[in-house]
Every structure is written in structure tokens, then in C-alpha cells.
Amino acid sequence: MSFDLRGRQLDPQILQLNIQAPVSSVLLVSECLSQGEMRVSCSSNGGDSPQYSWTLDGHTLTDAQLLSGNKDSNNIILRQDVSGQLVCSVSNHVSRVSKEETISTCGFIFIDCISNGTHISQWVSKANNTLCTESTTAPTMITVTEADHSLLICGLRTAVVILILIGIAVYFVWKKKKYEKAEGSAAPEEMDYENSVMMVEMRSSASEL
């Protein structure tokens, strides 16, 4: 029992001692699933009350990268297009240990096309893909449309340039003909003047005789 300075008995106090074993090591295991997802498991060797956290390329995993599970559990499933430097950290009140692994996609691609009249939109193995081999997919149609539009614009620009060049050529030809016509109309006047002089001289010679 314990008493205060006035001799009154104090209420008993209970102290709780919590002892935790530290985490010694972490094991990271990944495997590809049937649809290209990746299951990753993180397990710790020893350690009491472990807590898990995940990062990818230095950033906390987001819900958009997870197909199932959460970033605080030791088992997660990543989406088909997720890759990079994955780190699992295990910690408790007395220790913290991390394990990292470089993960890549499981070789799956996402296809969105029409094959034999059927719309296909799914993840498939790139190596064994036998779907969407026809040239009727939406991206191909969009590309062809943009190409036709570009060719039409180039053709219009070329036609405009040709018309401008033809206009310039016609203008210079018209100007040259106008100049030649002006020279031709001036030549007879000069000849008439010379003929008049010759006639005057001939008349003068006749009168003298």
C-alpha cells in the first residue's frame, strides 16, 4: 500500500508491460494469375503484431493499382498493367523491416476490337493472342479517317498553290501582250511620218524640174 503526504491511502495503480519481439526478416513472393493479374504475398519471420505497408516506385499503392486487397494487408493482387519497384514494409513498435522486388507485367495485353462480328474487350496473353487479327478495330478506323482528312487538306493546299501560280503566269502573259500591242500601234505612226517626209521631198524635186 502507498500513502500521500497527509497519510491517506492511495488507490492502487496497475502498470501493463507489453513486450514485442522484433521483426527479423521479410519474404516477398509474387505469382501471375490466369487473367494476367499478379498476386503478391508478404510474410514476416518473427515479430509480434506486424503491420504491413506497400509502395511502388517510392509512392504508396493506390486503389487504381490494386485489383483486390488493400495496402495495409500482407496479400494483394495487382492489376495487369502494374509494374515497377515494389516494396513491402513490416513493422511493429520495436522494429521495421522492408523487402523490395522489381515486378513486371505478366505478358498480357488489353484488346478492344470487333472480330467476326463480335465485340471483344478483355485482357489476353500477348504470346497466345489469336483474337483481334482483323483490321476492323476502332483504333484502326480512327487512324484511317485521320489520314484521309490529312490527305484532303494537303490536296486543297496544293490546288490553291497551283491556282496562284497559274494566275501569276496569266498576268505576266497578259502584260507582255499588252506591251507588244502598244509597240505595234506606235510603229505605223512612225512609218507614216517617214512616208510624209519622203512625199514632201519628192514634190520639191518635181517643182524644181
Give an overview of the whole structure:
The chain has 209 residues and is α+β, with helices and mostly antiparallel strands. Among the domains are: 81 residues, Immunoglobulins (Immunoglobulin-like); 64 residues. It has one helix and ten strands. The strands form three sheets. Strands 1-2-6-5 form a four-stranded antiparallel beta sheet, with no helix packed on it. A hairpin with a 2-residue loop joins strand 9 and strand 10.
Key terms for this structure?
single chain, 209 residues, alpha+beta, Immunoglobulin-like, 4-stranded antiparallel beta sheet, 1 helix, 10 strands, 30% strand, elongated
**How many DSSP-defined strands?**
10
Which strands sit side by side, in order, in the main sheet? 1-2-6-5
Top-tier CATH class of the domain at 25-105:
Mainly Beta
Helix content: 25-40%
Instruction: Catalogue the unreliable spans.
Output: 134-144
> CATH superfamily assignment of the domain at 25-105?
Immunoglobulins
Mean pLDDT score: 78
Radius of gyration using CA atoms only: 48 Å
- The CATH architecture of the domain at 25-105 can be given as Sandwich
Distance between the termini: 178 Å
Going by helix content, strand content and strand pairing, the class is alpha+beta
**Total helix count?**
1
Shape estimate: elongated
Q: Provide the succession of SSEs.
A: EEEEEEEEEEH
Largest β-sheet summary:
4 strands, antiparallel
- The third-level CATH topology of the domain at 25-105 is Immunoglobulin-like
